[in-house]
Amino acid sequence: MSKTLVVGGAGYIGSHMVLHLLQQKEEVIVLDNLSTGSKKAVLGGTFYEGDLADRKLLRKIFKEHAIDAVMHFAAFIQVGESVTDPYKYYENNVANTLVLLDEMIKANIKNFIFSSTAATYGEPHYCPIDIQHPQNPINPYGHSKLMVEQILKDFDTAYGLRSTILRYFNAAGAEGEKIGFHEPITHLIPQILKAASGRKPNVSIYGTDYNTKDGTCYRDYIHVMDLAAAHLLALKHMKKTGQSAIYNLGNGQGFSVKEVVNAVKKVTGKDFEVIETPKRLGDPAQLIADSQLAKNTLNWQPQYSSLENIIADAWAWELNDSWHV
Q: What is the reported pTM?
């Protein structure tokens, strides 16, 4: 049986990936330094606490397990923080990833799934955004991801390291009451739900003067389990074809921050205070995906495309008191 190492597997998206792999009867190894992840979110597999830059630990894992693929979810992802502390992002997202890739090559592990981002596109020239869209990031987070994309292309040519780059848009939702988002919470929908549940006094809207219909940012929200399904499909396709690839992952429709706030109020039946604040540095006005290539090539079909369904799943998780400690 093939074994997959999930780096960052105790984080929000990584833990859902681990769950999906387990549901598909795949064997999973998890590596996470728990800086933002939670051990409780890892529902199976073999867990190692440590950093992706720890060469000694990586060699131990690769020696003890017949790993044939690595999935990378261990990046820092906060756009605003990347602007104020770019060193942190270039060190972890680029330099530490280089260590992981180097150890993979030495261990002759040739399949790599990389969680990239729509932030590599910068301000869109058109929407929906396809993978041919020019890449011109406007923040260090996007730059760090684009750097790794270029590294992966060069490593494919030089070392035969096959990679699938998945540029996804806004992850949201949760898997029933099994797992979901956890502190530190950075995504929009969980932040709004915290206000709906009373765990925080209000929610902030960052910027209301964008060149959009209602002045707030538009984003493409995709259910986290749809993301996980796409990762496994991409891995199987890469193993079958022996070819590297790039895909966008999103639902192909955008919702403004104000629309998401109103949808949360509708789904939860709760009212809460909304505070309008200035724009954050590095936030594009809109990011909406053209994911047709992934759908056509991987036979990937998102199962939870409704914003209301995504919010309802996330709300069920928000009400899970066992995690709010």
A: 0.93
